[in-house]
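debug: dumping io for the single-chain case to check the tokenizer round-trip. Nothing else runs in this session.
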Amino acid sequence: MIKKYLTGVIIFQLLCFLIPTTEVRSEQWSPKIKIKNGSTGKISGADHLKLISLAGGMTTIKEIPNPSGEFQMDAVEVPEGSPILIQVIYKNANYNKMVPPAPEFRNQPVEIVIYETTSDPKVLDIKSIVQITREERGIRFLKLYLIYNNSEPPRTYSPPEPIEFYIQDDAVSIEARLNQPGSGMGIPLNPQKGKVGYQIGRPILPGQSDLMISYFLENTNEEIGIIDHLLFEDKIENLILINPPDMEFLLEGGGSFEKIKEVGPDGMLGYKIKYPASRKISFRLKGGEPIRERITETPTGRKIVNGNIFQTSISSLVGYGAVLALLFSLSFLFVYRKPSKA
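debug: decoded output
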């Protein structure tokens, strides 16, 4: 199941990568739509519907207010050979379904499942991992979250206040992407400063969602102070991977940690961190030979730094799939393996 899911994500991203962005011809399409409420099991209505072209970006082609039940849209012009995103909005949540350009997909009815909402945080189960890499110009953070919405009957988690995640104040190059069930694609986010951290700005759909956050701390000192704060995470433990492995991890103040040897790629060291009641820790990173920036360039001229997963490239997509697979395996690590004390 995991392998099939990751394969689907990679195929879609590669498809987008191969779409030409120069001359675009159009074709006629009359999509057949079916809107179903996954909380009630019945045919339903929604607040809004959009057709969005994914050719060279995200361009809205058609909008329909108050769509309901099963219907066929009037013919619209869509870019030839372009995947189309059908987005249905219901109670401030977006439900996306990507339709490939192949006739066998275009000619089939497209079922989009929407849900009622809940604000109960107990429906979420969150597994997380943080990768910290020392580069020549500073420290790069990559935070990955597997978010399970286990509500029954299934409901979209939509709290009164926006969900927030922590990013250090002096961070730059902040990027985030959310992949939700059924969409077949990662959604780029535009994180905005919230009360304590940065806001996701999206509800969490039933099933498994993947949230990826990347940021950079520009600091070339041998010893660097770091702060981390658990905000929406439901557990007080986290796993941190350190790269290069000769970089020292020095915990300050509250909390505790256990060292796990060579749990990541390239011999990275892992630290299982237990946060104090304040859910906030401070630590220092000392030494370590910087990982040299591996800059590659795609056929479209995009530069990729260390396989940054937020760029559209073959190398970054393989890295994305590998890290997600690693996160799945590490989520069970502490059940089967007893870590050594630091």
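debug: round-trip ok. The chain has two domains: 28-114, 121-341.
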